[in-house]
Amino acid sequence: MSVIECNGLSKNYGKKKALDEVSFVIKENTITGLIGRNGAGKTTLLKLIAGFIHQTEGDIKVFSKNPFNSLAVSANRIYIDDQMNFPNTLTLQDILQSAASFYVNWDQLLAEKLFDYFSFHPSLRYQQLSKGMKSTFNMIIGLSARCPLTIFDEPTTGMDASVRKDFYRALLKDYLAYPRTIILSSHLLNEIEDLLEDVLLLKDGEKCLHLSIEELKEYGVYLQGSDKCVRELAGDKEILYEKSLGQDHLQLGIKNDLTNREIQQASSMGVHISPISADDVCTYLTNKTIGGIDDVFNRS
Ligand SMILES: Nc1ncnc2c1ncn2[C@@H]1O[C@H](COP(=O)(O)OP(=O)(O)OP(=O)(O)O)[C@@H](O)[C@H]1O
C-alpha cells in the first residue's frame, strides 16, 4: 500500500520554483532517504507531505488524503526538524508527558530509557539545551511517538558523531520492531545508507532519481586507464564524473550499462572497472560540473 503519492507536484515561492513537477510513490513501512544539495527542495517537499504548506500545482495524497490542513493526516504523522520549539514554562519531563497524551502510539518506556541514556536532566527547559542536545531530544520524541508516518528533516543537526551513530541505530532497531513509514532528509548519504531501503534524490527542485539503495549502489562504475582506451570504452554513455590522473591517465565515472562484451573489452584494454558508491553517485548527479570543485582550479 502506498502512503504518499505525488503527481506533478510543484511549489513556488513567488517567482522561485522550489519544487518542479515531482512525481513519486512511497510505500508503507519503508525508510526513504531524501537526499539533495542545499536548496534542492527537500524541506519544501517534506512540509508539503506534512500538510504545513499548500502546493502551487499538481497533486499530493498522504494516506489517500490531501494533507493540507488534514486532521487525519496530522494525527498520523510527526515532523521533526531543527526549528522545533517548546514553551519555556515546560520542563523536558513535562514535554514528554504532553507528547505522551498527544500521540496514540507513544512508548513512554522507550522515551524514558532514551532520556536516561542521553543523560537529560528532567527539570531542564528546552531552551537551555545546546543545538545537538535539542536534536537528540527531538529524536527521542520522533522515535517514541511511533507515528505511522515519521518525517525527520535533517535530524542530526549539531549532533556529534557518536550521538549520530546512536540515533541511526536506535532508529533502525525501533523500525524493525515497529515498522512504519519513515522519511529522513540528509546531506550525509554515506552515514545513513545502511538504514535506507529507498533513496529519493532531488536536484534544483526536480526529482533526479528514486531507487532502492541496492539499485543506487549499482548505478555507476568508474573506468580507469589510458585516456584513449577509457574514452573509447565510454563511447556515448552518460558521464557522471571525470578526473585526469596525470599524463594520459583518466578516471571516468559512467552510468553502469556496460555489456558483458564491453567488460571483456575493458579487461583486454587494461581499463580497470570499479563501482561508484551510492553517496558519490548522488554527489556526481547533483554537481554543477562533471569535474566538481577541481573545475574551479582547472585553468585549461
Ligand atoms: N519561505 C520561502 N520563501 C522563499 N523561498 C524559499 C522559501 N523556502 C524555501 N525557499 C527557496 O526554495 C528553495 C528550496 O528550499 P528548501 O528549503 O526546500 O531546500 P532544502 O533542500 O531543504 O535545502 P537545505 O538542504 O539547505 O536545507 C531554495 O531556493 C530556497 O531558497
Q: What does it look like?
A:
The N and C termini lie far apart (53 Å). This protein has twelve helices and 13 strands. The radius of gyration is 22 Å and the shape is elongated. It has helices at 42-50, 71-75, 92-102, 108-117, 131-144, 161-177, 189-192, 213-217, 227-234, 260-269, 278-286, 294-297; strands spanning 2-13, 16-27, 31-36, 57-62, 77-80, 149-153, 181-186, 198-203, 206-212, 220-226, 239-244, 249-255, 272-275. α4 (108-117) runs antiparallel to α5. With 300 residues, it is an alpha/beta fold. The strands form three sheets. The protein has a six-stranded mixed beta sheet, sandwiched between helices. Strands 11-12-10-13 form a four-stranded antiparallel beta sheet, with helices on both faces. The chain folds into two domains: 2-216, Rossmann fold (3-Layer(aba) Sandwich), CATH 3.40.50; 219-297, 2-Layer Sandwich (Alpha-Beta Plaits), CATH 3.30.70. The longest helix is centred in the middle third of the chain and has 17 residues, at 161-177. Adenosine-5'-triphosphate binds at residues 13, 16, 18, 36, 38-44. This is ABC transporter ATP-binding protein. Keywords: ATP-binding, Nucleotide-binding, Transport. Residues 4-229 form the ABC transporter domain. It comes from Metabacillus halosaccharovorans. It holds the Pfam family ABC_tran.
